[in-house]
């Protein structure tokens, strides 16, 4: 473990903020809320004392005592937040006593609206105080996570500034141990969070830390051994940046902020969504049709869709026969829209059989266009994902042979191959309404795009120093990372529903 103490972590605590962010706080509050609601329920008795109310009051008192005891234990175990925790405990004790008094008075006289009102106000105050206590207790876990994060940040600085292989290995061992602890704490936090976006951000950050750790070591070793090679610095800086962004994201999410690591990959495919929207808009009540407004609006939406279809048709991956079919279907959709708009005009507010037929024909033609676009996507995927290993293999072989000229030639081929994978993934996304699948593909494609130039850099390093053991290890690490990422992208594209 790191011998230096990390800098103290400031706990940002707003006593007025009662937002519940974790499932454990919500679950802990549920029994108390249920009991308080039962206590406040209307009495069926017309007069006299309420035995049921006395039983419920006793249950609230027991629960309050448990909260106070747990809060005092947390305060003792965590000197950093002792003052804030004891203040929260005192508030629970005070509001709990007020609740007990008001509830017992109401139990003695369940028909009194004044005493009922006093009890309801006391219950609200107690619930707020307990919520504050639980949120602060939850922040203790955040505090521990942030302390672990500070240790890893300190380790990263040491790894970056290591001046020898032995120094690097010593610092990296500490980094490895402390990173495992951070990843485990982040996993526990992830399981607790209610916000799905924050959970996704934490999951992504943990994945980046896991998959980049070995590359951080090999890239750092290469940079220390061959500092004269610019590609070595680019490799090391890339991986270091990835790891730092992941660590920063964990810190952001722990404090309730959306992480900076994960761009928004949300939303369905643009072309699929546009077609869905168009299908809905062409079905109108004839009475609402307005030639001056409706016609240009629908024509504009269709032309936007056709522009997207044209991009797919013009893609270098699209086969000639498929391109012609897409163009033909675009023209057919245009004609179907004109026929439909003419029927809306001719119907003059009445619903005619011919109008129903025009609406059906419009739907058929948009379905035909979808079918051709989806077939084009399948063609692209089949062509581009068939031989994903060859461009990498020839690049690595040229690097091992120390042939720098060939490495540059194969680097261009490899980059074109990577670009095609990303392009095809984007086209596949555009025709899918399956948001989770689209998100996975977009994320995997972005990683491919970022990793490609660094695989080339690793090959350049090895080509320049083919006998260097650290250069060979670094090439192997980046090759493995690339193969893993391509496999993830391939699986994501296969699993995505078109």
UniProtKB/TrEMBL annotation:
The keyword Transferase does not apply. One of its GO terms (molecular function) is beta-catenin binding. It comes from the Eukaryota. InterPro entries: Alpha-catenin/vinculin-like_sf, Alpha_catenin, Vinculin/catenin. It is found in: Cell junction; Cytoplasm. Its main location: other. One of its GO terms (biological process) is cell-cell adhesion. The keyword Signal does not apply. SUPFAM superfamilies: alpha-catenin/vinculin-like. Keywords: Cell adhesion, Cell junction, Cytoplasm. One of its GO terms (cellular component) is catenin complex. Belongs to the vinculin/alpha-catenin family. This is Alpha-catenin. It comes from Rhipicephalus microplus (Cattle tick).
């Amino acid at each position: 473990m790191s011998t230096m103490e990390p800098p103290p972590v400031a706990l940002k605590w707003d006593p007025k903020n009662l937002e519940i962010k974790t499932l454990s706080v919500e679950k802990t509050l549920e029994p108390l809320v249920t009991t308080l609601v039962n206590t406040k329920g209307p009495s069926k008795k017309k007069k006299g004392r309420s035995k049921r109310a006395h039983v419920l009051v006793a249950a609230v008192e027991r629960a309050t005592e448990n909260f106070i005891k747990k809060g005092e234990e947390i305060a003792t175990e965590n000197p950093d937040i002792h003052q804030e925790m004891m203040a929260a405990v005192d508030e629970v004790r005070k509001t709990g006593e007020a609740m007990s008094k008001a509830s017992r008075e109401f139990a003695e006289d369940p028909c009194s609206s004044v005493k009922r009102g006093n009890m309801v106000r006391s219950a609200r105050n107690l619930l707020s105080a307990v919520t504050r206590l639980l949120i602060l207790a939850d922040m203790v876990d955040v505090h521990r996570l942030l302390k672990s994060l500070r240790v890893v940040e300190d380790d990263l600085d040491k790894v970056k500034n290591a001046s020898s292989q032995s120094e690097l290995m010593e610092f990296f061992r500490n980094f490895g141990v402390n990173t495992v602890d951070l990843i485990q704490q982040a996993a526990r936090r992830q399981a607790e969070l209610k916000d799905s976006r924050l959970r996704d951000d934490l999951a992504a950050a943990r994945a980046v830390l896991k998959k980049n750790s070995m590359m951080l070591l090999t890239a750092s070793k290469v940079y220390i051994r061959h500092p004269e090679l610019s590609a070595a610095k680019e490799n090391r800086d890339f991986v270091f940046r990835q790891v730092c962004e992941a660590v920063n994201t964990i810190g952001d999410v722990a404090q309730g902020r959306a992480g900076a690591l994960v761009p928004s990959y949300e939303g369905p495919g643009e072309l699929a969504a546009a077609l869905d929207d168009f299908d809905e808009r062409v079905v109108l009540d004839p009475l609402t049709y307005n030639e001056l407004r409706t016609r240009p609006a629908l024509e504009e939406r269709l032309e936007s869709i056709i522009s997207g279809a044209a991009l797919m048709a013009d893609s270098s991956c699209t086969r000639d026969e498929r391109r012609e079919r897409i163009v033909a279907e675009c023209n057919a959709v245009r004609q179907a829209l004109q026929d439909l708009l003419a029927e809306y005009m001719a119907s003059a507010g009445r619903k005619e059989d011919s109008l129903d037929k025009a609406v059906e024909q419009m739907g058929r033609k948009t379905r035909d266009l979808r079918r051709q676009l989806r077939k084009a996507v399948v063609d692209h995927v089949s062509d581009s994902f068939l031989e994903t290993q060859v461009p990498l293999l020839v690049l690595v072989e040229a690097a091992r042979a120390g042939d720098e000229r060939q490495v540059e030639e194969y680097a261009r081929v490899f980059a074109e191959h990577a670009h095609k994978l990303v392009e095809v993934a984007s086209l596949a996304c555009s025709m899918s309404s399956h948001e989770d699948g689209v998100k996975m593909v977009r994320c995997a494609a972005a990683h491919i795009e970022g990793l490609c130039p660094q695989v080339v850099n690793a090959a350049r390093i090895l080509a320049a120093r083919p006998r260097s053991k650290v250069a060979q290890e670094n090439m192997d690490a980046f090759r493995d990372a690339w193969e893993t990422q391509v496999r993830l992208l391939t699986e994501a594209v296969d699993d995505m529903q078109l």
